[in-house]
Amino acid sequence: MSVAPNQTKKRVFLSQNPATVIIAMPSGWGGTEVNTLLLAERLLDRGHEVTLMEVGGGFYANRMTAARRKIPVIPLPTNLGTLSLGIPRVQQWVKLLRQYRATHLVLAKSWVHTRIPALDVAALWLRLRYSCVEHHPAHFRTERWSELAMIHQARSAQWLQRLARSRVICVSHTTLVALRRFERLPLQNAAVVYPGIPWEVLHRSEVGRRRVREQYRIPADAFVVGSIGRLEPIKRHDEAFRIFASLGSETAPSEPHFLLVGSGGDESSLRHLAQALGIANRVHFCGFVPDESRADYYSAMDCFLMVSKAEGLGMTLIEAMACECPVVATNSGGPSEVLIREDLGWLVPQDDWGRVRAAVEAAQAMPSAHRQRRVEAAREFVVSRFDSNTQNDILATLIEQA
To answer: What is the four-CA torsion angle of 316, 319, 323, 328, rounded to 10 degrees?
Structure first.
């Protein structure tokens, strides 16, 4: 997608090294947060002085590995990320951005409805090169007036963010369409840049496969379905459990097992559901797994299942393909931009649970030679289209030119 040249007069900086401040507002740990860290690392490699400011949560500070300690993480109070607009709040943002000598500002947004009007005013006041990276379409299917009021308030603040930002970058066309629908106006300076993954460290590992299966006492010949993601309603792990409960073990002596990697507020209800479905002894709650260990878990799976209500793109889907794990996904938006060929995986219509089950069963019954051809084609596709360095260089260039 072409990007219109920026027409807004921006501040001219004498420093040779840009100072980029990234604002993040995580509600958990997932693809948005991993993508933001990869972008921060790439900007650092390109000579930027990078500071990551986290509004509430503490997720980034708790997840930083030793290799990433070179990126300072500044915790900020939750009230700095609210929709309220007042002079004291604007002054707080101005003071912070001046303290870190910001020349470029990036708001890494998890949802398209996110607005921080005080930050927008501060960016305008300081004439910063201001980019918004949009990750996920908003879904507010609720009758609670508090959330409806929040949507109205966020929309009323749109004009301010449109005025302040220099560029909008969406991780998929799905997210761009959702943003256009939400803002109800054509977007200026908008682009789509798919995020990338470090495929060099995400590859199938037979050693990792054996280790994970031994850790959870899963037989070597068992068919293993798996999912990686936050344990939240939008991921619909409950539907994944129901699909799994209906599977048989016709193709192997051992019964199927399920690996669920992630943490979140739905864990207790999912454990109760597994008990009710009679699969608790074959469902393994693995909790949060560090990035450097994820390839072992993908390798331990024979089918990666994604049945989310909505996905901006689906980073775990791409990671599973890089690790040569067959994938089944519902068409929840982003996956349709990944599974663009039949040999890459099974893309099933949303909410068609019969076809989801049939796809998982097809993966279960697939002959090994056919399986190998498919997973090799999927990995080759990921390497060619979703390389982290390439995609983040494109993203960084757009941010620099905002």
So the answer is: 50
